[in-house]
Amino acid sequence: MEPKNYKVSRIDGDYALLIDTDSGEEMLIARALIPEESDEGSLLRWEDLQYTVVG
Description:
Blueprint: E1 4-12, E2 15-20, E3 26-30, E4 43-47, E5 50-53
Antiparallel strand pairs: 1-2, 1-4, 2-3, 4-5
């Protein structure tokens, strides 16, 4: 699969709401799946089955 970019829209307890920067689709995922340093507004890249902070 191709890498995808997401923006962390909201963190609510154990979950994070991500928005696909290309399509605008929203996705609710477990907070444990994204890097600890992620915060609302962070840009994430999903590649090779893991998320990394890119901005």
